[in-house]
Structures are given as C-alpha cells and as structure tokens.
Amino acid sequence: MRDADLVVMGFVRGAFGVRGWVKVQADTQYADSLFDYPQWWLKKDGEWKPYTFTDGSAQPKGLVVKFDGVDDREIAAGMRGMQIAIARDQLPAAADDEYYWIDLIGLDVVNKEDIVLGKVAELMETGANDVLVVRGDTDERLIPFVSDYIVDVDLAAKRITVDWGLDY
C-alpha cells in the first residue's frame, strides 16, 4: 500500500495487558470512529502492513485495541510507535464545504491580491474553530478556518484563497 492511498489516523502508544492488546492514540475527531474500519494499516520500518481489527474500547487516555494474530504482550510491545492508517477509499466522502485535514496540508495559501502567504503546514483545533498554520519562507501565520477568512478551497489546483493581509 502506498502512502498516498492511506490516511494516517494515529499511532500505537504501547502494549496493554498480556494478551496482545495495544494502546492507541487516535488523531481523529472521534477516537472510537476508528472502530468502524475492519482493516487498519500499520507502518514499521517504512512498510505498511494490514491488520484486522477484532475488538476495542475507548479509554480516558485513548483506545485499547485487539488485532487478529497479535496474541501476546511481546508482539504488542513491538508495535509501539507504529503509525495507524485507514485506506482513503474506505473513508466517507466529505460533505460540501468540509475537508479532511490531510487534504489541506501542503496546499498553497494566497490572499485575494494573489500574494502567496505560504503553504498549509498543519491545522490546529482551538475549540472555537480550526486554524490553518501557514508557513512561508520567513514567517508563519495562523489563519482561522472560517468563512470570514477562507474565500475558496480548490483541492484540484492545490490552493486556498484567503481574505488575509500581509500585515496581519
């Protein structure tokens, strides 16, 4: 499986118990939404390998998960640090005016005057709204991802147009 065909959703934090369960840190809006997918892809040493999700539960500090074929603590402990991804084609289509964060990262950000402000390096969740972290050659801007500032998102052109001045 290629990186472009997968969406990283979290990572394995370590072993949980003695029967092969692992602790998972989910980087999703709802952590337990990962349970909707029967096949997970885990990456170790640059290679993705499929794992079948068999059971899991939400805990206060993340998820605990059981995979088919992972039956003892040693195997589970060896999975620590592995990235977890879901095949992109298994994700539901985003609604109109909604985007997966992974699709926004790397897009060029320009203002209404067509001045390049940089690229989306990451997004932050602030509680009130999401924020684009836009990195240019020499600076970084935090732009709220709300309709007051986002004029257009063109995924095909890999470009976000914003109502944002150079001196903000």
Total beta strand runs: 12
> How many domains comprise the coordinates?
2
* Percentage of residues in helical conformation: under 10%
- Proportion of strand residues: over 45%
CATH homologous superfamily identity of the largest domain = RimM
Largest beta sheet: strand ordering: 1-2-5-4-3-6
| Average of the residue pLDDT scores | 94
Gyration radius (Cα, Å) is 19 Å
| Class of secondary structure makeup | mainly beta
Which fold does the CATH topology of the largest domain refer to? Elongation Factor Tu (Ef-tu), domain 3
Domain RimM N-terminal: 9-90
Subcellular location: Cytoplasm
Organism: Vogesella aquatica
Family: Belongs to the RimM family.
Descriptors for this entry?
168 residues, mainly beta, Elongation Factor Tu (Ef-tu), domain 3, 2 domains, 48% strand
Notes on the protein architecture:
The chain is mainly beta and 168 residues long. It has 2 helices and 12 strands, in the order βββββαβαββββββ. It folds into 2 domains: 88 residues, Elongation Factor Tu (Ef-tu), domain 3, CATH 2.40.30; 62 residues, SH3 type barrels. Helix content is 5%, strand content 48%. It is elongated.
Question: What order do the helices and strands come in, and which of them pair?
Answer:
Elements: E1 6-16, E2 21-26, E3 39-44, E4 47-59, E5 62-67, H1 73-77, E6 83-87, H2 101-104, E7 108-111, E8 116-125, E9 130-135, E10 140-144, E11 150-154, E12 159-162
Parallel strand pairs: 7-12
Antiparallel strand pairs: 1-2, 1-6, 2-5, 3-4, 3-6, 4-5, 7-8, 8-9, 9-10, 11-12
Subcellular location: Cytoplasm
Keywords: Chaperone, Cytoplasm, Ribosome biogenesis, rRNA processing
Main location: cytoplasm
